[in-house]
């Protein structure tokens, strides 16, 4: 069932086997694993069915480090979370993204790729994408002949993109959740405190408040925080503890190692033959799955240059006059579950670009390609992971939000290693593409973190990772490899905040795989559930 926390008197404690905080990608994927099972689950979601001004106000924070746009633009506080706006890109990690690298402090995961593979396959089936291969074997499957690249320096990987109708998890599971007798979703229920035993070794309950004055206290056998890299750290730090450092923070690392991916406009391509660039880099379809080409340094090149993981691709910047932005807004509204018809001005823009848009639609059907407009600028983009840095972090500020919780302070930092990898791999890749005969590439002078949408601009891309990192020992992280907190035996964390190092692959695929893996662990722990009925909430 899906209900809203009302403004009446406080209800009695709600009892469950499992309480999940957050109904975004990780939280809903986890909850869906318990649908129609014998376990009773309560999911707390801070927002409503759709984002609103009150939800956006709760997201407000103080940004004290490098300019970071994703704290505002990259979070959606409502049922479905960021899956309401997610592009659907899925890339599995490669082995070296999980390995320790001596030139990257803090790198290395306490698990290997083989442990993730079966869960990747389950996510592929869920989202109905094609699945393996993701590497150079895709050339022949796409009916393409690869260029003769320098295999000692470069390797390729293909992203797969879920279809529009599978991206928003609120729509994907809404009917099942509404009908469920064992999984209850409570909207407008912001978790404001985690209550533990006096020594802090076990979670007893979570307190939630609504914007209208409602309160609830949820008791459960197991608890999972799945509210993103910023909010998960904020809730842990703001919750009462015997030493004042917050919950599950004996290591002092909650909130530290905040990471994002950095995207850099490395250059502009002046093509010798535009059709050649489009042939290689325009996305293609197999069935309903879209593929796009990425180029990376090999493991040997990274060791030689002492680079981070990086990923280069070509972006076709669409002129605004073609109506493309208006069409994209309409499609985004469909993904969010509320069709917004174009305004008069937008309709006129769509009409002006109708011939070009029709040509693009025809290419999708007949050529199985997502064609780019003939007038699009061609940009060389380079994305890079961040080196784990304990000084890049989420802290608590002094201001309180409308529910009385301290707002977060975000101190995002990048190191010389990120800057050097962006510039160095950008130059190396540009030379390789010129060698392929794609044309001349006008390179940027270097990463500019104050710029936006200009040559050389470098920015975050809304991938919040690392603030509750996974580790083998309590001194070096917040959660164990099975995602249970080192310090609190019945509290687990789901989502990209557990990533010790971000890698370069889009984090959603791996975060979802870890969530499904966590569900299996929790089902084992909850093998003898209580039998009391689910409690319904009344306003």
Oligomer: single chain
Q: Counting H and I runs of at least 4 residues, what is the number of helices?
A: 15
How confident overall, as mean pLDDT? 90
Using the coordinates shown, work out and report the CATH topology of the largest domain. FAD/NAD(P)-binding domain
List the helices and strands and how they pair.
Elements: E1 2-4, E2 14-21, H1 25-32, E3 41-44, H2 53-59, E4 62-63, H3 70-73, E5 89-90, H4 95-98, H5 113-127, H6 138-141, E6 154-161, H7 169-179, E7 183-187, E8 190-196, E9 203-209, E10 215-225, H8 228-238, E11 262-271, H9 274-281, E12 284-286, E13 289-297, H10 299-305, E14 310-317, H11 324-336, H12 344-352, H13 354-366, E15 377-384, E16 393-400, E17 406-411, H14 416-435, E18 439-443, E19 458-460, E20 491-493, H15 507-525
Helix pairs in contact: 1-7, 1-15, 5-15
Outline:
By secondary structure, the protein is α/β, with parallel strands linked by helices. The protein folds into 2 domains: 2-318 and 376-525, FAD/NAD(P)-binding domain, CATH 3.50.50; 319-373, no CATH class. 28% of the residues lie in helices and 22% in strands.
């Amino acid at each position: 069932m899906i209900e809203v926390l009302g403004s009446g008197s406080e209800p009695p404690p709600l009892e469950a086997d499992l309480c999940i905080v957050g109904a975004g990608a990780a939280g809903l994927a986890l909850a869906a694993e318990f649908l129609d099972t014998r376990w009773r689950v309560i999911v707390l979601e801070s927002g409503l069915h759709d984002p609103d001004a009150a939800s956006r106000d709760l997201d407000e924070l103080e940004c004290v480090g490098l300019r970071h746009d994703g704290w505002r633009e990259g979070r959606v506080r409502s049922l479905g979370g960021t899956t309401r706006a997610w592009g659907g890109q899925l890339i599995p990690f490669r082995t070296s993204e999980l390995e320790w690298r001596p030139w990257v402090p803090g790198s290395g995961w306490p698990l290997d790729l083989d442990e993730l593979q079966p869960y990747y396959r389950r996510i592929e089936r869920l989202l109905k994408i094609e699945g393996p291969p993701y590497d150079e074997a895709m050339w022949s499957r796409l009916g393409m002949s690869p260029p003769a690249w320098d295999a000692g320096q470069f390797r390729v990987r293909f992203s797969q993109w879920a279809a529009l109708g599978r991206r928003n998890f609120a729509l994907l599971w809404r009917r099942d959740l509404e009908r469920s007798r064992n999984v209850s979703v409570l909207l407008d229920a912001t978790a404001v405190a985690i209550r533990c035993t006096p020594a802090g070794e076990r979670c007893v309950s979570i307190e939630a408040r609504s914007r209208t004055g409602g309160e609830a206290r949820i008791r459960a056998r197991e608890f999972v925080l799945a509210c993103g890299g910023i909010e998960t750290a904020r809730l842990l730090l703001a919750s009462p503890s015997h030493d004042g450092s917050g919950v599950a923070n004996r290591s002092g690392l909650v909130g530290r190692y905040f990471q994002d991916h950095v995207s850099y406009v490395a250059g502009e391509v002046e093509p010798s033959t535009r059709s050649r660039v489009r042939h290689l880099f325009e996305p293609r379809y197999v069935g309903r799955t879209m593929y796009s080409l990425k180029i990376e340094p090999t493991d040997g090149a990274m060791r030689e240059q002492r680079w981070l993981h990086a990923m280069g691709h070509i972006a076709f910047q669409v002129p605004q006059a073609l109506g493309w932005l208006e069409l994209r807004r309409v499609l985004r509204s469909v993904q969010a579950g509320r069709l917004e018809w174009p305004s008069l001005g937008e309709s006129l823009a769509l009409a002006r670009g109708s011939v070009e848009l029709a040509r693009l639609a025809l290419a999708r059907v007949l050529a199985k390609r997502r064609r780019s407009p003939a007038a699009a600028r061609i940009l060389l983009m380079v994305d890079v992971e961040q080196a784990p840095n304990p000084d890049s972090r989420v802290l608590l500020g002094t201001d309180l939000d409308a529910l009385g919780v301290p707002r977060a302070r975000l101190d995002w930092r990048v190191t010389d290693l990120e800057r050097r990898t962006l510039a160095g791999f950008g130059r190396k890749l540009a030379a390789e593409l010129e060698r392929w005969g794609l044309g001349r590439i006008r390179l940027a002078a270097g990463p500019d973190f104050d710029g936006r949408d200009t040559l050389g601009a470098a920015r975050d891309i809304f991938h919040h990772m690392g603030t509750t990192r996974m580790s083998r020992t309590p001194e070096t992280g917040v959660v164990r490899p099975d995602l249970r907190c080192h310090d609190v035996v019945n509290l687990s964390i789901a989502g990209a905040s557990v990533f010790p190092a971000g890698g370069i692959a889009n984090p959603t695929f791996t975060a979802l795989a870890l969530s499904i893996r966590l569900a299996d662990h929790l089902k084992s722990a909850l093998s003898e559930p209580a039998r009391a009925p689910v409690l319904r909430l009344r306003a």
